[in-house]
Every structure is written in C-alpha cells, then in structure tokens.
Amino acid sequence: MVNQVFSSIKKELENVYQKIERELVIKAGHISSFAHLKHSVIDYAIRPALVIFSGRMFGRLSEKTLALAAVCQFIHMAAQVHVDVNEQSTAQIPGQEHDPRDGSQFPVLVGDYLYGKFFTTLCDYGIVNFLKPLSEIICQINEGGLLRQKEINSKVKSQVVARDVVRRETAELFAGCCSLAAESAEAGSSECLALYKFGKNFGMAYGLLENGMPFDQVVHYLNLALGELSLFNKCQARESLEELVNLFLVQKIAVQRMVV
C-alpha cells in the first residue's frame, strides 16, 4: 500500500536515491562496510517523499528540491548511525574476525561523513540558504539523543520526556522536509508554516509508532496533520500526502520496527 502512494513520484525518488548512492562509495569502499545502514523501504523513502510531495504542491520540482530531499535523508542516516553506536567497543573474540560495524570508531566516522555530505550537497546545488535551519534540526536531533540516553538511565520514566525526544529526534526533521521544500518551490510564508505544522504532527505520529507508544496518541497527531493539509487547495500532491497519513491512521502500519 505504501509503495502505491510513492508510485506517483517513483522517478523523483530514484533521482534522489542516485544522488545518495553516489556519495556512499568512497576510496575505502562502500560505507555500509563500516556502519550498519538499517532502513526499511518506508523509512528510506518517507523523508525524501515528504520533500517531493511538499514541493510538488507548488509546481514543478527543481533539481534544488531533489537535492534537498537527499540532504534530509543524509541527516537521518547520519543520526541513525550515531544512535546505534555502542558506548563501549565490542571486544574481539579470539579466533573470530571482528566486524568493524559493531565497534564505535568506524560508525562515528561514517555518521560524521554523512553529516559532511549534507553540507557539501547544499553547496553543490546552491541551496546554502538552508544551512541554518537544517543545522538547527541536527542540533535538535542530538539534544533528543542526549535526553533519550538520560531517560534510559532514569528510574522514573516520563511520557512527557518521551514525547519531547520524539519531537526532537523525528518530528523536527519531518517538519523541515515539508516546510523547506515549500520554501524551495517559492511558496508563501503562511503555506510554509502550514506544511511545517503538518510535518511536525506527522513526524510525531511516526516517531510515537516507532517507539511503541499508545495508538490513541498517534491518532491525535495524525488528525492534526490532516487538518493542516485541509488548508490547501486540492491537488495530486496533497491527496498523496493525505493518503499516506490515512494509511497510518486506518491500517496502523507496522512501523514499530522499521528495519529490514
């Protein structure tokens, strides 16, 4: 069902994937040899898709918007690699070959490399104007990671803190995908704000599902996201976004563990 939603932007997604893949091959080899890159189909596609659909709402997509889609995915990939880093390097078992992806040094370097590619891609496509908001999103993601680690070590668990972690680690990037794509397509400030709110609410729902939170909380944010979309005139891109949200709302897409 998700693939059907993405089918209308298949060519654009392939363009974005090609941009990403070109940067994953370095002199030392493919970076997947040095860090675990764990993504399901939906988790690999959803952020670029949000950029593409949001940009399409305001006309034909430019190469700059497609580059922005790749940048947003670089940020997500870097964050995920860093999240998976062990606090202590895995000890090598005598007689058994050590997998560098299970340590800490190589994954940290890969994550830093991916963050670097976010910046160089902005430069290559002349969209450095997005550097500040995207850097602020990266700061939010890292602050969320600190809060999450602190909460893990806390004896008293708080749903308020858990939602704040989801907002920082997931929702802010979703919001940026939508609002910055609209800005790249020269949308008005009110339209950019509405898409920011849509992305933030959808990102909250996605992150809560990812973390196994109660579905009634997820429904609340999905309905808020649909409310923001209702402010826009009907078009194929808006309908695709609504269809994507409704898949989560009606079918409870199994994204609790979105890895292949």
Give the tags.
single chain, 260 residues, mainly alpha, Farnesyl Diphosphate Synthase, globular, disordered C terminus, Isoprenoid_synthase_dom_sf, prenyltransferase activity, metal-binding
Explain how this protein is built:
The protein is mainly α and 260 residues long. It has a single domain, classed as Farnesyl Diphosphate Synthase, CATH 1.10.600. Strands 1-2 form a two-stranded antiparallel sheet. Helix 6 runs antiparallel to helix 7. The radius of gyration is 18 Å and the shape is globular. The two termini are 17 Å apart. The C terminus is likely disordered.
Q: Specify the overall morphology.
A: globular
CATH architecture identity: Orthogonal Bundle
CATH superfamily membership:
Farnesyl Diphosphate Synthase
| Average pLDDT level | 87
* Total beta-strand segments: 2
Q: Tell me the quaternary state.
A: single chain
Strand percentage lies at under 5%
Q: Which class of secondary structure composition applies to the elements?
A: mainly alpha
CATH topology: Farnesyl Diphosphate Synthase
Outline the low-pLDDT stretches: 89-94, 255-260
- Gap between N and C termini: 17 Å
Helical stretch tally = 10
- By CATH reckoning, the class would read Mainly Alpha
The helical percent reads 55-70%
Q: Roughly how many Å is the radius of gyration?
A: 18 Å
Pfam families: polyprenyl_synt
Keywords: Magnesium, Metal-binding, Transferase
Cofactor: Mg(2+)
Protein name: Geranylgeranyl pyrophosphate synthase-like protein
